[in-house]
Amino acid sequence: MSEDTREELISAYIDGEVSPEERAQVEAWLAESSHLRQLHDELLALRSAVQSLSEHKLERELAPAVLRRAEHSVLRRTMADDEAPRAALPGSIVSWWERGASWRRVMWPAIALAAALLILVFDAGRRGEQEVARAPEAPPAAGPADSSRARPAAEGAAPAERSGTMRELEKKVETLEMRRQERNFAAPAEQGAQPQLQAPSADMPKATDRYRARSSLPASVPPGPTEQASQVYQVPSGYLYGKQFENLLDQKKIKWVRLPEGQALGADAVADLPLAQQEAQRQKAAAMQNQATYYLFTTQKNVDDVLSAVPNNKKLPAVELYGAAQQQAPLTAKEGEPVKITIVAPEAPAEAAPAAAAPAPAEPPQR
Amino acid sequence: MKDDAQLIDEACSGNSAAFGQLVTKYQDRLYNTLVHVVGSTDGAYDAVQDAFVQAYVKLDTFERASGFYTWLYRIAFNLAVSRRRRERPTVSVEQARELLGQEPLDRDPPPEARMEQQERACQVRAAMGRLSDEHRSILVLREIEGCAYEQIALVLDLPIGTIRSRLHRARLQLRDQLKEILQEDVK
Fold first, then answer.
1. Is the dihedral of CA A90, A96, A99, A104 positive or negative?
2. How far apart are CA A366 and CA A360, in angstroms?
3. Which segment, A123-132, A179-188, B15-24, is predicted with the most confidence on average?
4. How far apart are alpha carbons B59 and B52 in whole angstroms?
5. Interchain contact, B168 vs A54, CB within 8 Å
6. ipTM
7. Residues of chain B contacting A73 with CB distance shorter than 8 Å
8. Least C-beta-crowded within 10 Å: which of A85, A116, A216, B110?
9. Is A276 in contact with A324 (CB distance < 8 Å)?
């Protein structure tokens, strides 16, 4: 047996990783050879030196950050998998139907569906409560009349392409609105009453709780980037009530999503103001209740071009709508994020007055 | 107190908090080991996070042939080695001083002994840093993690015979770097 092999056995011997026969052999060698005894002692000293190195401990809990990153990773992977052809999956992977209990593939489509239902319910509630006095909607020139969901710019797009685009837009809006609801709850308007801004109280249900009740979101939503404040423009009534603004966006081939009403005004922001200013803000907000907020999936330059085509439009300072707290939020979108704008019209058009007394046409039941 | 198998079952069923308990249970142990593999606390911190995230995402592929920590460690080890190869830190004695941990074994030595202890630890850490990745990794697994050869073989995906010979060569390399310190210890 070579010297290297003997030394190797000595090393395994001090680790207790030898057979009984090998152990007996090593112990015989140690009794006979001073060189091997010295090696044995040096290896033990070496172990002691390495084990005496200080212990390192983390100062904080990693679990929240790990779970947050992992959820994002799963979401990105699920979105990528949805687009991959089934045929590309290795044969050894069981299809997700057969998996059955694969919770990830069930959870995220459920969240997207819950978000879509939530948007529809909010929009239905807003129509029933506020828009009785509005002029009847101009007959749409083309395309669907539903304004609460993203409409692709190209009406003639293939259904598969449009659904993929819509799903992408809805997911973006869902993410943005999740973060918004975490910070900025606005109480839903009561049926038939003018919407009043209220400072949130402890017994008010939070928008996030309602949202979570309909989905299976994780317990904590990660903080997002600094939220973009809405750019506010006063426009002629027809652009708000007559859908002219949305038609203009479609003409410019700009993809847009309209947010449910009641969330563009920051009740928290008003509550942050000194008391003397809160009432003034509430009155101003009530006067400006007729408004619509959009996410425009385009560049700021294109947004500016669109607004330059709106006659008599007037840009309003964000503080007038949001209060001082939101004044700190950036007014321009980060690269890759949609531009957020709010259009307001100070009063309903005169021709809408007769319609105020008419029953609302085919609307969902009011809350 | 639930064991690892129960927590894994719950995590796979959608209870992410169960996985959070696994993170809490193993984070310090994994971090301590990776500091020695990577050679920096920042790199080890990132590697630990990355390892847990990967483990969470791939949890349904864990076949339970080994313990959860062994499987986790294998993920972490590969990440740490890749990170070290990218960063290639050279650990001098001065840099090794910065890696001194928070809890020296001898908590109440006299000041001179404490300084000697720290200086010795710096030299050992610097010597470990100068080893090759393969030698340092196997020494960390054996001497710091206390892994049996079979576990080391699972982590490194090597035969046990190779583990035995590689560990011995790693020890000889480290011994050569620390001759003076070891001679004092042996005496």
1. positive
2. 10
3. B15-24
4. 10
5. no
6. 0.79
7. 53, 56-57
8. A85
9. no
CB B22 within 8 A of CB B11: yes
Residues of chain B neighbouring A63 (CB-CB closer than 8 A): 19-21, 23-24, 27
Contact A307, A249 (CB under 8 A): no
Sort A65 into a burial class: Cβ within 10 Å, 0-12 / 13-18 / 19+.
middle
Look at chain B and count its residues.
187
3-class secondary-structure state, position A153: coil
DSSP A42-71: HHHHHHHHHHTSPB---SS--HHHHHHHHH
Radius of gyration of chain B (CA): 18
Smallest CA-to-CA distance from A238 within A137, A153, A308 is with A137
Res A13: pLDDT: 95
Q: Distance between CA A299 and CA A304 in Å, rounded? A: 9
Compute the count of residue pairs across chains A and B with CB atoms less than 8 Å apart: 142
Is B47 near chain A, with CB under 8 Å? no
Tens-digit pLDDT profile for residues A14-44? 999 999 999 999 999 999 999 999 999 999 9
B residues 114-173 closer than 8 Å to A (CB): 117, 120-121, 124-125, 128, 139, 142-144, 148-149, 164-165, 167-168, 171-172
**The predicted structure's pLDDT at residue A80:** 65
Q: For residue A232, what pLDDT is reported?
A: 85
Number of CB atoms found within 10 A of residue B73's CB: 27
More confident: A127 or A154: A127
**Predicted pLDDT at A325:** 42
Sheet holding A255-258, edge to edge: A255-258, A291-297, A339-344, A231-234, A314-316
Q: Which SS3 state, helix, strand or coil, does residue A91 take?
A: coil
Centre a 10 Å sphere on the Cβ of residue A261 and count the other Cβ atoms it contains.
24
pLDDT of the residue at A152: 41
Instruction: Read off the pLDDT band of A267 (50, 70, 90).
Output: low
Give residue-wise pLDDT tens across range A345-366: 866 555 444 444 444 444 444 4
* Identity at A226, one-letter amino acid code: T
Q: How confident is the model at residue A89 (pLDDT cuts 50, 70, 90)?
A: very low
Largest CA distance in chain B: 58
User: How far is Cα A137 from Cα A147, in angstroms, rounded to an integer?
Assistant: 11
Q: What percent of chain A has pLDDT over 70?
A: 44
Cα separation, A252 vs A302, in Å, equals 9
What residues pair up with A151 in beta bridges, in sequence order?
A256
Residues shown for chain A: 367
Helix or strand holding residue A294 (H, E): strand A291-297
Q: CA-to-CA distance for A296 and A187, rounded, in angstroms?
A: 25
Buried b / exposed e across A213-234, counting CB within 10 Å, b at 16+?
eebebeeebeeeeebbbbbbbb
pLDDT grade for B63, boundaries at 50, 70 and 90: confident
* Residue matched to tokens 């007055």: A353
A352 is written with which tokens?
């809408």
